[in-house]
Every structure is written in structure tokens, then in C-alpha cells.
Amino acid sequence: MENKVQSQVPTLILKEKFRLGLFDHPYLDPASVKVLNSAEFAAKGMEAQQKSLVLLKNEANILPLKPTAKIFLEGFNKEETKAYPNVVSSVEAADIIVLKINTPDNAGAEKYFLQKLFNHGFLAFSEKEEARLLKIIQSKPTITVINLQRPAVIPNINKYSKALIADFSSKDNVILDLILGKFKPTGKLPFELPSSMEEVLKQKEDMPYDTQHPLYKFGAGIVGYE
């Protein structure tokens, strides 16, 4: 029965394409699309980015940062953050470092083309990369923002960071607005963050949230600022 249903799927998709006239008129006229550049939809998209950010750690209520705090940005897009007046050009001149990093990607030689398009390999940073990041984090009080394309093993980065924010590809200016208190965090973690690769390897493939000592549990997230 399942195979019969699966075999009908391509036919149903083609039927819908014919019904919509995609074979006769495959290209849209932008002038006919009334939602293009919609301010309302853009505002909803910005709201979605704000709500997706997850504040996981806020040691001594370091966030939101004071408006006068001098910030050094590492890993941020200069174009998106040029409007922030207290951004300085060196670590030495900064009161706070805001470090943005991506999910660890320790893949080896990729056998298939599609593998090259996705972040994969071990969930922990290599020793060399972790040492580089910890050197930055320990040089000044640091707010670490990690873009979680998948779960990551980051116990040491979490330990030495004054604050930790989980990001899901929000724009850099949205992240800075959260850090500066222009809106309050409301996001919750959609998966758990394991505390070690050993615990990852002990997990059952068909059992979610089954590590014994996760760094952050599924649903973790600090709501609001005190």
C-alpha cells in the first residue's frame, strides 16, 4: 500500500503544476506579485528572527549591555553593524567582546557532493579551534553567540563566556539589538546541547533528549531580563 501511494506522488505533483499553468507560463511577472517588498511581511520576518534567539546564560546579569559599553565585534558583518556607535576596532579598547561563531564543522574528505553543502562531522570543535576561541573569550568579558545549524558540544566555551546566545541565522543587527536590550529574549532551545562527545556517542539513534548530563536541556532559555 505504501509503495502504491509513493508511486502516485509524482503524478499528483505534475497534475497540480498543470492546474496552476506552470508549464504554459513558468515565469512570474514581479508586477503581479502584490506581496513583493511588503513592509508588513518584512516586519513579521524581523519579529520571527527576534523570537528565535535563545539566551542560555547571563552571568551576573551582564545583559543587556549598558549603552556606554565599548564593544569589540568578532565574526559579525561590518555592514549590518556599522550603525552602532560604541563598536571599537580593537580588543584593547573594548570593555566587552561579542564573539559570533558557527557550529563546529570537523568533516574530513567528503565522498559525496551534497556533503560539502552541509555542516557535519563531530559536534565538538577541534582542539586547535577551541584553543583559539578560548584565547579570545578569556582576554576580556565575552558574550558568545553561536549559530546552531545543529547541536554543538561547547562546555568550555560556555564556562568562560559571560553570556551565551543561541542563534539560528538571525541578522547581525537583530542579535546586537537583543544584546543592547532593544527587545527581551523569549526563545527556547529546540534541541538539547550535549556536554561531551562521549555522551553523544552513547545516545540511541531513535531516542531524543536521552543524554544523561546535557549542558542545556531541550526547551532551555532565559525569558526576559531581570
Give a written overview of the molecule.
This protein is α/β, with parallel strands linked by helices and 226 residues long. The protein has a domain at 54-202: Rossmann fold, CATH 3.40.50.1700. It is 30% helix and 13% strand. It has a six-stranded mixed sheet with strand order 1-6-5-4-2-3. The longest helix is centred in the N-terminal third of the chain and has 19 residues, at 2-20. The radius of gyration is 22 Å and the shape is globular. It starts with a helix and ends in a 24-residue tail after the last helix.
Spell out the key features of this protein.
single chain; six-stranded mixed β-sheet; alpha/beta; 6 strands; globular; Rossmann fold; 226 residues; 7 helices
